[in-house]
Design goal:
5-stranded antiparallel sheet, Rossmann fold, about 375 residues, 2 domains, 5-stranded parallel sheet, alpha/beta, Phosphatase 2c, domain 1
Length: about 375
């Protein structure tokens, strides 16, 4: 909760009472008490305690440089250390460069010489008041933005969650990491069982960062959910499914032709352990076999949103117990740490997967391969374990 403007306070600290009274009197010439209250102190420690206890409403501290017990540079430095929104002005009649340098290094806002010029004093108070209000308003807006982003993040995570609807077989593990400073992103994942018993596993990555890609993931979720409700006819084969989804997105996003979505679709027949894979623009899909060997499948067509004429291929495989399929979005593979040209990294990844390494540990393995050991994009890992 933010205080009303008439609750603001200005603090004057000087060991000479005549100085604090003179400053208060002159400030009141321009600013009546309805604008803010003024509190004066001759003891710097008492003044510091007051500011600490009222830092939400103290917008400015004017302090003398030379005082017994604590000089003004140290006092204002300590105030700035616990609240950088408070505007600080050092009052001095001395040319003590060491203390002035210390004041400058502590980002003290301004210096006011003794004797002061009235117009200069008014200008300092006016600027401090405006700066304080601006900083508090920015803080308020930042907190509101963070609240809204957290709400969006919670909504997206709940929307994508597989906890209540994950197929019984094969086992599917998901690790999703949206960009930290936003909390939601353009990665999409889903897994569900059709009426005919087939399991559908979908992974997508909307190009770009921020709120727009997150909204597109909601659109994709809505499209696919509606198709499931209307019937399973869209889920014939992965390549036909992606072709139809591509046309739907081109129609819905005709006003935003730069929206591109990399996507993979894996259709699984659990009874016969057979799968069909189509990869449209995601990093290669990795198959780790129980025998210790592995292979990966590159793009079978362009990402969704490029063209209505896009055509897709698909691969059909029979899986065995202990085999694992790994799907990744490019947030995990940026800087080309995992790529078709980096065979050693794929071998390391395949070995981790074959050893039954948990999904979150695999994500940490990939994170540590980044230049700054942090992902710069949304990152999603899906493991399908037979």
């Amino acid at each position: 909760m933010y205080m009303s403007e008439n609750a603001l306070q200005l603090v004057i600290i000087d060991d000479e009472q005549r100085v604090t009274k003179a400053l208060e009197r002159e400030i009141r010439i321009k600013y009546p008490s309805i604008d803010f209250s003024i509190h004066t102190f001759q003891n710097p420690l008492e003044g510091l305690e007051f500011v600490q206890n009222n830092q939400q409403t103290v917008f400015m501290v004017i302090s003398d440089l030379r005082m017994p017990g604590m000089n003004g540079a140290e006092l204002l430095e300590r105030i700035r250390s616990f609240d950088k929104d408070i505007q600080t002005t050092l009052l001095t009649a001395y040319s003590d460069m060491d203390d002035i340098r210390r004041a400058v290094s502590a980002n003290i806002r301004s210096l006011l010489p003794k004797p002061w010029d009235q117009d200069r004093l008014f200008s300092e108070v006016e600027s401090a008041l405006a700066e304080f209000k601006l900083r508090k308003e920015n803080t308020k807006l930042r907190l509101e933005l963070e609240k809204q982003l957290q709400t969006a993040s919670d909504f997206q995570k709940a929307m994508l969650s597989l906890h209540e609807k994950a197929p019984a077989y094969p086992f599917i593990a998901v690790e999703y990491y949206p960009q930290k400073h936003i909390g939601c992103g353009g990665d999409y994942y889903d897994a569900f069982t059709l009426k005919d018993g087939r399991v559908i596993v979908l992974t997508g990555d909307v190009a770009g960062h921020g709120i727009k890609p997150a909204l597109v993931t909601v659109m994709i979720k809505t499209i696919i959910q509606s198709k499931r409700i209307l019937g399973d006819f869209i889920f014939t084969t992965p390549k036909e499914f992606l072709s139809k989804l591509n046309n739907e997105l081109l129609l819905l996003l005709s006003s935003s032709p730069d929206t591109i979505v990399a996507f993979s679709a894996i259709f699984i027949d659990p009874q016969h352990q057979q799968i069909q894979i189509t990869n449209a623009g995601l990093p290669p899909v990795l198959i780790s076999y129980s025998t210790g060997s592995f292979e990966y499948f590159f793009q079978d067509g362009p990402a969704l949103g490029f063209s209505a004429e896009a055509q897709y291929n698909e691969h059909a495989l029979t899986m065995q117990k202990g085999d694992t399929i790994t799907i990744m979005t490019d947030g995990l593979t940026e800087n080309r740490t995992i790529s078709s040209s980096n065979q050693e990294s794929y071998e390391q990844l395949a070995q981790l997967i074959s050893a039954g390494t948990p999904a979150h540990t695999i994500v940490e393995f990939l994170r540590n391969k980044q230049q700054k050991k942090e992902f710069n994009d949304d990152a999603t890992l899906m493991l399908i374990q037979f």
